[in-house]
Amino acid sequence: MICKRRRGFFLEIGLLFAACAGAFAQDQPVPTPAPVPQDTQQRQNPPAPKKGEQNPAEEAARKTAGATKKLGEITLEKVRDWESGWLTGPYVGRERERVTLTGRQREQIYLQQTFAAPSDYFKRMFSAGIDQWRESPPQWNEHWSGYGDRFASREGQFIAANTLANLGNAALRYEPRYDQCRCTGFRLRTRHAILRSFLTYDQSESTLRPQWALYGGAFGGGMISAAWKPHPQNVFADGGWGVLGQAGYGTLLNFFTEFAGDINRKLGARRLGKSPP
Fold first, then answer.
1. pLDDT tens digit string along 19-28?
2. Is the CB of residue 159 less than 8 Å from the CB of residue 242?
3. Nearest 5°: phi and psi at 178?
4. Would the CA dihedral through 202, 206, 209, 211 be positive or negative?
């Protein structure tokens, strides 16, 4: 029964898109060609250039095509340039020294990690999709409105968790960023990415400490999310799921950030001279 409802949900989506496309096509009026004055015809169809002369229209088209191609190359390069922090968020590159952050820098990192990193939005969309498939919570329906409720719930939980984590890191003077391993070899770098999901540097930027603030924030965000979910809710269970989610997603993001440069080179994107702050 559940599978049938789920198939029905996705079938409704497909039918909705098809109906919208058909209605749009049917609603478009068929234009009636109007008579074109003779002088307009002459402007629209200028005489062919003499031998040796360059056609202005062809020259303009050539310049436009060149500019479009260059813009496309720049855009693709920016999209593939994960090392700039566009997708991974702020981190410390292996070629940079770790320095103690100021309050202003912590504020900027918090805003970028919470609202500007596309990877976090992808995570919430994916998590909301899993919740939709699991029908969790069951009081929310299986259609778009239910998915919207689940996405908003995940968004609120993430903002609460990240806010608590950053406040805790600021109070403890802990490092909130991932730092790439200065080692070589896939195994050592993977080990570094996993360990840094549970350990971070203190104010000295040389001594590792447990990620108390990060997981405390994840637990608190999970408990807070129970406030807007349908009752009954187990706030401690929601907090525990928040901790497990942070451990899994944090490790995956660290791995991705660690090997972003290698992926860049495989795709042929340029390597930046400097890493993001």
1. 444 443 444 4
2. no
3. -80, 140
4. positive
